[in-house]
Amino acid sequence: MLDFSWFEKFKVENKVKAQFDLIIVGAGILGLSAAIQAQEHGLKVCIIEKDAEPNAATRRNFGMVGTSTLAKPETKWHKYALKTCEFYKKIQDKTDISFQKRSGLYLANTELEFNVLKEFSESAAAYGIASQLLSPKMLNNRFDYLRPKYDFEGALIVENDYSVEPHLIGLRLLDYARAVGIEVITNSSVIKTFNESGVCKAKLANSECYSSSKILICHGATVDILYPDLLKQSGAKICTLQMALTKPFHQRLDMSIYSGLSIVRYPAFEICPSYVALQQNEQPNLVKDYGIHILIKQNEFGELIIGDSHEYDEIGDTPRYEQREEINQFILQYCSENIGINLPEISKRWTGSYLSHPEKMALVTEAEPNIYLISAIAGKGMTTGAGFMQEILEQKIF
To answer: What is the CA angle 72-78-81, rounded to 5?
Structure first.
C-alpha cells in the first residue's frame, strides 16, 4: 500500500486548506455578486474578506440603485444596471436583502435645469425609461415638505429606480453566499497572491495559503497590499467623499431626491441638447473644486442620508480622514435654500473612498496569469456591479 502520510504532513506544514475553482478577494458588492454568480455556474468558490463584514464603499453609500441616470442609456453600463437589478430581484424573491422599488425625484431650480429634464423625459421612453414631468404646481401639491427659498422650475420623476439599505445589503448577501455553499473567510487579510506552476494561490497574514484555478481581486480603495506598483501605474485616483446622516425625518419619503447639481453630474442627461449649456453654466467654486452634487435618501429608520462631494488624490498620497467643514455647510445651505427641506439634526458624518479613473469606466488588469485586479468602478458598484461582474466572469473565468 502506498504511503501518502507525507502529503498530509506537507499540507499541515504549509497550511494549504482547500482547492477552489475561484478565489475572490474582497466581500464588497463586486466580490459578493461575482461569488454568487460563479457558484450558480457550478464553480467551487471561496471569498476572503479582511474585515468581519463588508465595511467600505458597499456600506458607506446612499443605497440608491439608479438604473435610469447613472449611465448613458445606450451604453453597456446601462445594461449592466438592468442586469444588476435582475440579480437583486432574484435573490430578494428568496430572502430579504432590502431591495425595493424607489423612484427618483430630480429637482430643477433653474430654467436650464428644467429644460434638460424636459428633454430627457421626451427621450426616455425610447430607452424603456418611464418618467413623469412635473410642473411647479404639481410638485408643490405632491411634495409639500419641499419649500425652497425660490420657486422650483419643475421636476422629473424617474420610475425605474430602486433602493437597498446600505447597512444591510452587504451583510445579507454575505449570509446568502454562505447559505448557498460558498466558502466565506472573514477577518483575514490576503497579503500576497501569486501563480505558481499554473496554480493561483492566496496567502493570508496568518500564513495560511489557499489555492485555486483563478483569482479575482475586488480590492475597492485598498491599494497598498496587493500589486501596489501596478495600481499606481494604472492612472487610477482615490476619490474621497463626504456624507452625513440625520436623525429621523418627520414623515416617510417615498422617493430618493436628486438636486439640480446631480443633473449636471449624471451621464444619462448627456443625451439632452441643453446639457452642454448646463454643464458650462457657472457654478460656485466649491462645487467645481470638490465635485459637489446633493442627494437625499431616507433609510428604513426614517433617517436621511445626505451628501456628497468628490475629491481626487493620487494613489500613494497621504489619505485624508477629516472632513472639510465648508463642504458640510454648503450642503446644508443648499438643502435649505434650493431643495427646501427642513433637515433634522445631523447625527453622524463620515468619509468614504473608492477608486476612479479619469478616462476609463473601470479597470480590469491581469496582474499574473489567471489573477485579475478589478479596479476603479467609481461609485457605480451598487447600481451596476452584478451586471459588470457577470461579464467579467464570462470573459475571464468561465
So the answer is: 145
Q: CA-CA distance, 62 to 98, in Å (whole number)?
A: 13
What's the Cα-to-Cα distance from 347 to each of 41, 175, 244, 247, 344, rounded to whole Å? 43, 29, 8, 6, 9
Cβ–Cβ < 8 Å for 49, 184: yes
Lookup: cell for 148: 425652497
Mean pLDDT of 63-72: 92
The structural domains of the chain, with segments of one domain joined by +, span: 17-102+163-235+360-398, 110-160+237-356
CA distance 366 to 290: 32
Helices and strands: H and E segment counts in the chain: 12, 20
- pTM metric for this prediction: 0.93
pLDDT for residue 160:
85
Task: Decide if domain 17-102+163-235+360-398 falls under CATH 3.50.50.60.
Answer: yes
Amino acid identity of residue 211, one-letter, is S
Residue 6 cell numbers, joined: 507525507
Whether 13 shows a pLDDT value over 90: the answer reads no
Burial classification of residue 213, based on how many CB atoms lie within 10 Å of its CB (0-12 exposed, 13-18 middle, 19 or more buried): middle
Angle at 259 between CA 256 and CA 260, to 5 degrees: 145
- DSSP one-letter code for 258: E
Rounded to an integer, what distance in angstroms lies between the CA atom of residue 334 and that of residue 350?
19
pLDDT tens string 29-43: 999 999 999 999 999
Residue type, 60: R
CATH number 2.40.10.120 is the correct assignment for the domain at 110-160+237-356: no
Are both 17-102+163-235+360-398 and 110-160+237-356 of the same fold? no
What does the pLDDT read at residue 145? Answer: 93
CA 20 to chain centre: 27
Task: Give the other-Cβ count within 10 Å of 74's Cβ.
Answer: 12
CA distance 243 to 247: 14
Other CB atoms within 10 Å distance of the CB of residue 254: 12
CA–CA separation, 203 and 234 (whole Å) = 24
Q: How confident is the model at residue 1 (pLDDT cuts 50, 70, 90)?
A: low
For the residues 293-315, what does the mean pLDDT come to? 96
Q: Is the peptide bond before 51 cis (omega within 30 degrees of 0)?
A: no
The percentage of residues in the chain with a pLDDT greater than 90, rounded to a whole number, is 89
Task: Please choose, from the candidates 227, 189, 192, 225, the residue with its C-alpha nearest in 3D space to the C-alpha of residue 206.
Answer: 189
Find all residues with CB under 8 Å of 137, minimum gap 6, and list them: none
pLDDT at 18 over 60: no
